[in-house]
Design goal:
By secondary structure, this protein is an alpha/beta fold. The chain has helices at residues 25-48, 55-71, 121-130, 170-183, 202-213, 234-237, 243-249, 262-269, 308-323, and strands at residues 3-4, 51-52, 112-115, 190-195, 219-225, 228-229, 232-233, 253-258, 278-283, 303-304. Helix 5 (202-213) links the parallel strand 4 and strand 5 (219-225). It binds thiamine diphosphate (TPP).
């Protein structure tokens, strides 16, 4: 059971009693199976393309798998199995065909999912494939000119709803949508996936302040706190700890969990609403599942395979998984 933190980072007493949910072993097993498949698909892609965002798959596979298999309430995918090419810059005659189609139709009682760290795009596409929202060959056009299956995702990319390439903007966008939804009486929640590097930016804190001020407790923010950003360890670039206590001071209801534990995220998602936006700080390991990757630390942000020897080492990891 995740533990809410006081502003000082120590466990605080809950105002309301939290019903202990029975452990659903099948839900956890399903999430773990999808997480393993996400990591496998991303690793295969990285090997085939001599590089990619691999550490993000290691850190976030269980988070995304759990969200899609056990937490998000979404309608069936409405996007084509093979993503369409980019139709051109949107205008009055050509409205954006948002990648959120892959998260199903918008409906008052259904959830919306906003994906902020868009360099994680490969991991999101892999998750969509593994849960059947995107066709198995969708990565064939990854990072090709004219494709919506972008290396750095955009609002037309599968699973994405907004343009968020300039990091840390998505939470404000999602907050605006959540406020509008509440004014319309929607019961569906608004979920936002963030990375920890984004929490180095001021806009995240302004957004949390606004969410708390408007008491948008139907907003749930899930943060992949893998301890790294593009220039290395968070602690060496600009520390953000104690993250949980800071978020709580900004008015969020905070739970800190092991981000590789599906049950912990399922439990956090079931906490009753109490007027505060929910922030789930998922402590993760950017090498989880691929010990070989640790040799590259602290340069984990983008993995570029250097030579045939290294490619063979990663291929061996993949072959071992496939043999299991
Ligand atoms: C506003 C903004 N500043 C800087 C960047 C450049 N940038 C791209 S990825 C990244 C690191 C983000 O941190 P995180 O997602 O935690 O890194 P990871 O865990 O993927 O290594 C940065 C600073 C950006 N895209 N947008």
């Amino acid at each position: 059971m995740p533990v809410p933190l006081s502003p000082m980072g120590t466990p605080a007493r809950e105002l309301r009693t939290v019903a202990v949910q029975p452990v659903d072993n099948q839900a956890v097993a399903d999430a773990r199976r999808v997480a393993d498949a996400i990591r496998r698909r991303v690793l295969a892609h990285v090997i085939a393309n001599q590089g990619g965002y691999l550490s993000q798959a290691c850190s976030s596979a269980e988070i995304l798998a759990t969200l899609y298999t056990a937490v998000l309430r979404l309608g069936p995918s409405e996007g084509p199995a093979q993503p369409e090419p980019f139709a051109g810059v949107p205008n009055a005659d050509r409205p954006t065909r948002s990648g959120s189609r892959y998260n199903g139709a918008h409906a008052p009682d259904l959830d919306r999912f906003f994906f902020s760290p868009v360099h994680y795009a490969l991991v999101l596409y892999a998750a969509l494939i593994e849960v059947g929202r995107l066709g198995p060959d969708a990565l064939d056009t990854f990072n090709q000119d004219g494709s919506t299956v972008e290396l750095i995702g955009a609002e037309h990319s599968p699973g994405m709803e907004t343009m968020a390439g300039s990091l840390a903007q998505c939470l404000s966008q999602a907050g605006g949508v959540a406020l509008a939804r509440r004014m319309k009486g929607h019961s569906g929640r608004t979920w936002v996936f963030l990375s920890d590097g984004e929490c180095q930016e001021g806009q995240i804190w302004e957004a949390f302040q606004a969410l708390a001020f408007h008491q948008l407790d139907h907003v749930a923010v899930v943060i992949d706190a893998n301890g790294f950003q593009c220039d290395g360890p968070m602690t060496g670039v600009m520390g953000i700890e104690p993250l949980g206590a800071r978020l709580q001071a900004f008015g969020a209801r905070v739970v800190e969990i092991d981000g590789h534990d599906p049950q912990a995220l399922i439990d956090a998602a079931q906490l009753p609403f109490d007027g505060r936006p929910l922030a789930v700080v998922c402590r993760t390991d950017p090498c989880h599942g691929i010990e070989l990757l640790r040799q590259r630390a602290p340069k984990l942000h983008y993995v570029r395979l250097q030579n045939a020897t290294e490619e063979a080492q990663y291929q061996q990891v993949l072959s071992q998984w496939e043999a299991q």
